[in-house]
Amino acid sequence: MTHVMLPAVLAAATALGAGAACAQSAGEFTLGVGLGYVMPKDDNGDVAGAEADVSDSIRPTLTLEYFVMDNLGIEVLAATPFQHDVRLDGLGKVASVQQLPPTVTLQYHFQTGSAWTPLLGVGVNYTTFFDEDGKGALSDAKVRLKDSWGLALHAGVDYALSETGAIRADVRWMDIDSDVEVNGEDVGEAEIDPWIFGVSYIHKF
User: Fold this and answer.
1) Strand 103-109 relative to strand 72-79: parallel, antiparallel, unpaired?
2) What is the per-residue pLDDT across 71-86, written as a single tens digit (0 to 9) for each?
3) Mean pLDDT by 10-residue block, N- to C-terminus, for the chain (205 residues)?
4) Is 155 in contact with 170 (CB distance < 8 Å)?
5) How far apart (Å, rounded) are the C-alpha atoms in residues 129 and 69?
6) Core-most of 43, 64, 175, 180, by most CB within 10 Å?
7) CATH of the domain spanning 2-204
8) Would you state the pLDDT for residue 9?
9) How far apart are CA 81 and CA 26, in angstroms?
10) Phi and psi for 27 in degrees, rounded to 5?
11) Which of 134-159 are b and which e, b meaning 16 or more Cβ less than 10 Å from the residue's Cβ?
12) Contact 23, 16 (CB under 8 A)
């Protein structure tokens, strides 16, 4: 009987310990370091009378979250600059651009009594574009993408590795629309609205 019950007791203890490790208390911070893969939606709007396509990009990300209440935190997302190519139907690659998408999110972490802790959040994204460089048909033109404000949604799950460490897999959606100018003239709007898929290590302190 002992050889049957001992593994069950150990499994239960492990589950309870993992559940406790996932708990987030008011006043605590977490720091996350990982990678984010930005995948703009398929149809990126009409620019200069042609359908636009914005390429994907992957870069390191950093998150800092402060818990204002138990399980309820305010998170700030930062990253190194994402690099995108812009193509227009019939013209090919016409520009490259870098962007930074700092985002502030209010999010709730759902305690499950196990090592798994799902989270949901909603917030605001500000995306700034820079280092725009005309290519191909626009190689001699001055291309500019204006900064964007928009809604941000966040969902993910943490898996506790210890009392202070966890692995997170998450997905974000951001409303990013940018007015595009060529040589100072408004030529349309790039509707980027990307999904961002991430994986990171989260440390609690």
Assistant:
1) antiparallel
2) 999 999 999 999 999 9
3) 38 42 82 98 87 96 98 97 94 95 97 96 98 92 95 98 96 96 93 97 96
4) yes
5) 34
6) 180
7) 2.40.160.20
8) 36
9) 32
10) 95, -10
11) bbebbeebebbbeebebebbbebbbb
12) no
Tell me if 23 sits within 8 A of 119, measured CB to CB. Answer: no
Token pair 């629309």 in the structure block, residue? 177
- Position 101, amino acid: P
- Which candidate, 88, 94, 78, 77, places its Cα nearest to that of 53? 88
For residue 130 the two structure tokens come to 């820079």
Place of tokens 């609205």: 193
Query: Exposed, middle or buried by CB within 10 Å (0-12, 13-18, 19+), for 184?
Result: exposed
